[in-house]
Amino acid sequence: MVDALEEARRILVDPGVLVDARPDSRVAARVRSGSERGRVIGTIGTQRDTKTDDQLSDRAVREVLRRGLFRSRRRGRMWHAIPFEDRSELHDYLDEHLRFSRRVGWRVPEAKRGGRLVVERAIRFEILERR
Amino acid sequence: MSATASAGRILPGGLGYLRPPAEIELAAYGIDLRGLRVADIGAGEGRLALGAARQADSVLAIDPDRSALSRGRAEAKRLGLRNVSFREGAAQSLELRDASFDVVLMSWTL
Lengths: 131, 110
Known about the structure:
The complex is a heterodimer.
Chain A (H helix, E strand, L loop, with lengths): L1 H10 E12 L5 E5 L6 E5 L3 H19 L3 E15 L2 H10 L8 E2 L10 E14 L1
Antiparallel strand pairs in A: 1-6, 2-3, 2-6, 3-5, 4-6
Chain B lengths: L8 E3 L10 H8 L7 E5 L5 H7 L4 E6 L2 H14 L4 E5 L12 E7 L3
Parallel strand pairs in B: 2-3, 2-5, 3-4
């Protein structure tokens, strides 16, 4: 991962900009009832292996910052909303997902998990300036 | 995380759209790409590269997946985008000249 960041730096002009954006596995995805403004009725974590990979990526970014190859210009987080017709569709999605855990941590009883659902997942980004 | 204008913003998604629309993702980064040379590393089918090509001077999309690149090329042609090109390659060893890009995008790449 550090080698990829070094390559990015090599092809950038001085002071060019590198954007690193990834799903943020430090934050659980939120399951909302009905719409993006609906009540949060559950959360979805990240698979353990993926979390480890994400930590390695974080470490790589920290290393290039520490070595002075880049400086951090700005960081932020966005939420990406993915709608589902119902719980069954959500579970089908999770069964095939490479990042999310297979199970939802529900906060409400089963009777209140019906209808349309929206999963919001966090995306973090950092704007790095070549030094 | 530092607070930014885009922090907490909800990006639209959908089952056929499991990644944010490129123009919205790019806007969140707050970089004016007009007139710039952009490399999208790990571009896949070029979702972000094609979005960037609407603003940038030129965009090079790089990915090891030849079939994804092929789909990206077809989409670029369909959209009439002539300033985006697709090349097979790995992030760790880019066969590109030093200092040849103003912006490098690594979205879902590291």
